[in-house]
Fold:
Amino acid sequence: MNPFKSAIAVALCLGLAAPAQAEGDPKPGLLDLFSVDRVADSLASIAISALRTQMEVEYEHLQTDILRGTVALTGVTLRPQLAHDRARQCEITVQRVSVDIGQPSAAFGVATISTTMVGAEAAIACVPREAGLALRSAGYSEIEVDRLTYQTEYVHSTGEIRVTGSAAVNDLAILDLEAAGAVLPRLDQFGLPGDPAIRVRRAVLGLQDQGGWERLSSLIPENLRQPEVIQSLGTEELTNMLSNNGTRALTATERRFIDDLMAHVAGFVRAPGEITVEAQLPASGIVLEPDVYQAPEELLQALAPDARTAPLAQSDLLGADVLGRLDGGDVSTAERLDIARALLQGSGVPRAEALVPDILAPLMDEGGDAAPEAALLIAQAQAPRDPAAAYQNTLTAAEGRQPGAIAMLDRLEERLTTMQVLAAQDAHIEARPAVPALPAGEDIRAVRTQALAYFTGLGAPRSYRQAYYLALIAEAAGDIGAGPLREDIENRFENRGPEVRETWSALRTEIQTRALTDWIEGNLAARYAKEE
Structure:
């Protein structure tokens, strides 16, 4: 071996083995230099650097919280490059801008990204010249935005996109927007991917006056400022626009919307307040084809918007009379269910899901047709705090074929141990009236069908014990679909740790012994045998 290389190797070994000498204060380690928040700060800085290619950006402080999924900038100054602002007078200052992409755990079901801007001031030079001149004439030296929020949600399970936004401009107006829908694929006339269709489930636009009309109306001549004159001029302009300057006749929907909207505008002029335009849509929404949403008149016919003084939700608030009758029990079944839904969603009444079980308890005690729906609502209220109790109620809801109950069972089983799930299923079966172990008749497919019902919980209470027993009987009788079902049940308990493996081993032995005993004692071979 080369003596020189040997000496270097010995020196390195001695250097590594020797104790480190203290030299000043402790130095940060490698993990400190590459912490999660430091990496997030670096990524945010890179993003801001990319933004600087489009506009001048300055800020006083940058803060990131990767666990919460937030990035915040304070003391922000923006100087965008605008075609109408050759003198570069546009400057926007913002006290705080925050971007929230949601916590990773919550983003699994719904991906959310929201932006909040607080304390923004923009020079009049930031708006087009014509609008800027009108604002200056109305007494605005700058535009002050108290808050600006925008949030987009993507629901993974349905593909629905929800958008909400709000802008509060000081001494002018508050603008609110809410929309929900999904993008649908469409093929063009040649069978190739074309412009998508849109399923719209909600569309609301609201405008509330904050002193803007008083200032801006001063620019209008006195004789044109009267409510009746504005209503007449607005009706004429909208009619011309939607009729293509009179080349086509307006539909009844279009005429009703124009008359309704301008009547509210006239009322707004008399007493400035709020105007809301809301689409009247069924619960499932409507599908807008590309040729529909690209034409204003066809879009108006499809959405059938309604002009109001406030969103429709504000007219569906629960009154004190209905809530007050709860204590005396003088409420109908439908009213109890409506109140429970409202408390769960915080719609028309403050959110109070903890009260839902007590409100719906009488329906559960009666055990009537409303019991499955009541059970599912109770389960939704209990799920965040008590998943075991929620699972018990969801078993009742699934047995009654309530929509969404099967998905709720699967979600809750992810939060419960297998032992808790089996105990809950057994307790639910024992509490029910005794039913025959096997369906009546000699049709072996009926046995498999019942096994599947117990396995999924659709049409029968979910019970892995009962499902496995019936699958064993059906497979023994020669049903070709029972074998895969039995394997699905067995796979449910695989790779869940030694405790589950031990519990399932004992349970499987017990069920197999019971199935073999019933096969012999009940002479099931003769019952299900088929002669050629």
Remarks:
- The longest helix spans residues 498-521.
- The chain has a mean pLDDT of 84.
- The radius of gyration is 34 Å.
- The longest strand covers residues 110-123.
